[in-house]
Amino acid sequence: MQSLLQSSELLLSTLHEQLAATKATQSTPLLQSKAAIPVCLEHVRILRKHLKAYRNVPRDQEIHFFRYIKPQFVSQYLFHVLQYRLHYSWPKGDVETEQLYLEEELNHIRRFFKKNHQFCCYYSADSIYLDNIYFLRGQQDVEPSPEHLICGTDPSFNTPKDLLVARVIANNLFRTYLHEQLVQLQSSKEKHSRATPASGLTWTASKSALMEVIYAVYLTRAVNGGNCEIKALATVICNIFNVEINYNSIYDFIYHLKLRKLEPTKYTDQMRTCLLQSYDNQTEKPDKSRYGKL
């Protein structure tokens, strides 16, 4: 009969194989993490059954199990929950908005490690002098924590700190994942910057005036026969004129334009007036040196 540690290690290998297979069938990180969560929970359940099949587990094996093995299973569950929540709540906006979102997630992790600094130092230094308290069943946890709600409060499957170890591992995995997402965003930002180089032209009127022009172009279906989103149109025009704008606020600009009862088309009226004055004053062919090459 295999030992507890041997059977647990084999089960862990099976978990990693099934996670890889599950993710290969899904197209997005959101769907991958959603599919991975029940796989992780099922393997934690099987691990619990494995442990209950062994009676009188030696103390050194029990400590090893709760310090190193069980946290590997639970950490995979926690990591995929974090990943799922990240992509489920991912903001719709520009790269800067997405970067701020990821930075705030990293701040949550920093606060976690700061709060648990003493234990993290103990664990990362491979200290063992408190293992009899931290990783043996039946011990009183001096600092009960909500992590125990993850796997229930079954005293035969929990020790004071094994679930905290799982959170440490999961947060390390999630921190690495967040940094990878930031690198991808930065790469996308640089690629977009190279694809749309600055024109050297700067819009010096108000942003409201520019939004009035963009909205008018959008409504007149002057681009792609009207088959384009206003965000895409605003992105191109704002890039040409070096205007920074939060693209989530486009509809706020449009809403405020509609609220202007006295001058709802203030800037486009000004454009029309300037055009008509130019036509009235222009009696000869335009001077090319004034307008530049067309």
Tell me the number of helical segments per DSSP (H or I, 4 or more residues long): 12
Q: Order of helices and strands, N to C?
A: HHHHHHHHHHHH
In total, how many domains does the architecture comprise? Answer: 2
Shape: elongated
The total count of strands amounts to: 0
The mean pLDDT is 85
Sheet/helix structural class: mainly alpha
Query: Using only CA atoms, what is the Rg?
Result: 30 Å
Percentage of residues in strands: under 5%
N→C terminal distance: 86 Å
Low-pLDDT runs of 5+ residues are none
Note down, in words, how this protein is organized.
The chain has 294 residues and is an all-alpha fold. It folds into two domains: 4-195, no CATH class; 207-280, no CATH class. 67% of the residues lie in helices and 0% in strands. It has twelve helices and no strands. The chain has helices at residues 4-24, 29-52, 59-88, 95-115, 117-124, 131-134, 162-195, 207-219, 230-240, 250-259, 266-281, 288-291. Helix 1 packs antiparallel against helix 2 and helix 1 (4-24) runs parallel beside helix 3 (59-88). It is elongated, with a radius of gyration of 30 Å.
Chain-wise SSE layout:
Layout: H1 4-24, H2 29-52, H3 59-88, H4 95-115, H5 117-124, H6 131-134, H7 162-195, H8 207-219, H9 230-240, H10 250-259, H11 266-281, H12 288-291
